[in-house]
Amino acid sequence: MPLLHRLPRQCIILAQIRFNHATNLARINKVVIANRGEIAMRVLRTARRLGIETVAVFSDADANSLHTRSADQAYHIGQASPLKSYLRMYALVDVAKKSGAQAIHPGYGFLSENPEFAELCAAEGIIFIGPSANAIRDMGMKNTAKKIMIEAGVPVIEGYNGDNQDPEYLFQKAKEIGFPVMMKAVRGGGGKGMRIARSEKDFFESLESAKSESSKAFGDDAMIIEKFVQRPRHVEVQVFGDQHDNYVYLWERDCSIQRRHQKIIEEAPAPGLSMETRHRLGKAAVDAARAVKYVGAGTVEFIMDPRGDFYFMEMNTRLQVEHPISEAITESTAASNRATL
C-alpha cells in the first residue's frame, strides 16, 4: 500500500468534487470555514497557501476572534449559543451563496458529521469538504458499520450487532460470546453508553446503565455486545480517499492512554509495532474506507490485544483533533526525503 511520504499540510482540505454529473469537476476558489478557533485557523492557513480565498463565520461571542479577523471575508451568523449560530445549516449555506464560495469546510465538531448538512450542501450545489452523507450515516451507526466491515473482510471483534434488543436475548448472546463483555450504544461516541459486564451477575445492571446513558445522550438505547478485550491498545489510522477509488493511509497513532474513554496522549507512529503489523493496519483501514466509498480525511480506529491482533472499532468520518500529529510525522518524513535528494 503506497504511503504519501510527501503529503503537505494542505491535505486537511483535500477534496474531490461531486456534482450532478460524476465527470464534472470544479475548482475551489473560495471556501466557507464553518467553524471557529484552532481548526478554523488551520483550514484558513492551508487555504491561503493554496491560493484559495477564505470566508469566516462568527457568532456574537466570536466577533473579534482571530479567525474572524484573519479571513478574507467574515459573516455574522447568530447568537453566542452554537445552536443559534454554528449549527444553523441554512445560515451557513446562505453565507456560501452570498460570498460566492464554492465549498464549505466543516472542520471538526459542530456539523462535521451531520449527514443532513452534507445532503443540504449537495442539494444547493455547494461542495461539502468531507465524505458523503451515506458514509457518515453508515459509519455513525455501530451495528451498520460492523456489518459493512465484516462484508469487507476487515477484522472485527466477536459479538452481537442484531436488531433484537430484548434484555434476556442480549443476556443469552453475552453468554455465548463469553464474559467479560462490553456493551456499546449503537449511536454512541466519546465513551457514552459503554459498560463492561465482567460476569453474568453484572450483566443486567450494566445493560440498564448503558441504555439509560445512551438514551439521554443520543435519544436511542439500542446496544451491540462485544467480547471485551483485556489489556487492550487503542490504535487509529489516518486515511484519505478520493472519488476515483484512490486510498492512502498516513501511518497510525496510538491513543491507548485514556481517562474515561477520552484520549489524553497520542503517539505516532505507534510504539513497538513491526512494519508488517503497521502495513496490515494500514491495509485494513484502507479496506474500511473503500467499503463505504469514503472521500476526504477520516480515521479508522482499532482495538489491539496483547498478542498484536487488531479489530475494527469505529470510523470517524471527519478531520480529527489529533490530525496535526499525523501532519507532524508526515512533514518530518517529507523533509527527510527532500534532504536526501
UniProtKB/TrEMBL annotation:
InterPro entries: ATP-grasp, BC-like_N, Biotin_carboxylase_complex, Biotin_carboxylation_dom, CPAse_ATP-bd, PreATP-grasp_dom_sf
MF (Gene Ontology): ATP binding; metal ion binding; methylcrotonoyl-CoA carboxylase activity
Gene Ontology cellular component list: mitochondrion
Pfam family, one: CPSase_L_D2
Domain Biotin carboxylation residue range list: 27-341
Keyword Nucleus listed: no
Keywords, in A-Z order: ATP-binding, Biotin, Ligase, Nucleotide-binding
Annotated ATP-grasp domain residues: 146-341
UniProt-recorded name of the protein: Methylcrotonoyl-CoA carboxylase subunit alpha, mitochondrial
Annotated source species: Panagrellus redivivus
Source taxonomy: Eukaryota, Metazoa, Ecdysozoa, Nematoda, Chromadorea
